[in-house]
Fold these 3 entries.
Entry 1:
Amino acid sequence: MLPLLSCCAGVYLGLRFNILALLPFSILGAGAYISSSWSAGQSLSDSAIVLLLPMISIQAGYMVGLTARGAYGQLLERLNIRQSKQV
């Protein structure tokens, strides 16, 4: 479930933000996960291994979001029906 959620978050970040947005979100998410698992009593190496798949997933989702920007923009233009200003 976590890789799917992180992939969806990566797609959202890819559609909405530039490249520098991925790094802070990745670092904050990794830090939060490692600190919560460390406080629960897991070792640091176990937490780092479990964290690899969501980190790869968020980057893959980000790349999908970047490549879908053009199609997403065209879809928004088609759905945003306005009156023409032509006479």
Note: The mean pLDDT is 81.
Entry 2:
Amino acid sequence: MNTIKNVIFDLGGVLIDWNPAYVYLDVFEGDHKKMQWFFDEICTMDWNENQDAGYPLDQATEERVKMFPQYEQWIRMYYGRWEEMLGEAIEETVNILERFFQHPDYKVIALTNWSAETFPIALERFDFLHKFEGIVVSGTEKTRKPFPEIYELALDRYGLNAEETLFIDDNLRNVNAAEAMGINSVQFKNPKQLAAYISEIGLKI
């Protein structure tokens, strides 16, 4: 692992807190079971990920309303109140990121599943996003993790060798996909675990 020259960070869940529960837990008056039913059956993760891959938010919303007209008000909240789902930076991880930024030996980029329509909100809110060598946004590229194309794009665009690159993501599916392409990868669980892993593999930051 002492050959690592590049680090790819995921954003949501690693550096930035995002959770639709910030809106819907209030909407459903604290009923976690009802909220989970809504995410499992109506505004599902698969549906949201389709927008992360570039599908227009308005079109996705109208189609979902047509499918479930009785839940129109709740469906429109998903992107209508999206900014309220965006939490704060995960400061302990940002501190690790800043150490990579300050170290001359590493090229640091981001690879995120994020709608191109909402990503400008994050760019405006979080200053550290402007320090990356580059950010690959799935919604802009019209593909997303865990599909191989987006990893290949990130490697090619920034001249990264897979075997010299560490990928950090909270989603095990995305980590496994990166590993299958020869990218050294770790599933992020919390900042303390990530810091311990970085030390364990001998990265100097």
Note: The mean pLDDT is 97.
Entry 3:
Amino acid sequence: MAIEHPTQSSNLVDVLETVLDKGVVIAGDIRVGIADVELLTIKIRLIVASVDKAKEIGMDWWENDPYLSSKAAEQNNDQLEKENKELQKRIEQLEKKSGQSNGIV
């Protein structure tokens, strides 16, 4: 008579799939101090999740970072160009006003 043991093995792929599907948050603080005087505090926050799960919980900072996203870089360049043009117009207006008040045209 053979004894059977139920085996339920979770391989690495299953574990990884679950972690990415649900997400895992690791949080911790490191504090360095001498004689009850805090000298340094480092807050560490790490989330491991799939891109879809991260977007679902509102973490999509990489989409707006010009160093990580070409779309964000283009938007950033467009915004900088617009701001530059507005500043140039304001400088021209100020130069005209200062030239008129000094009698210079």
Note: The CA atoms of residues 12 and 19 lie 10 Å apart.
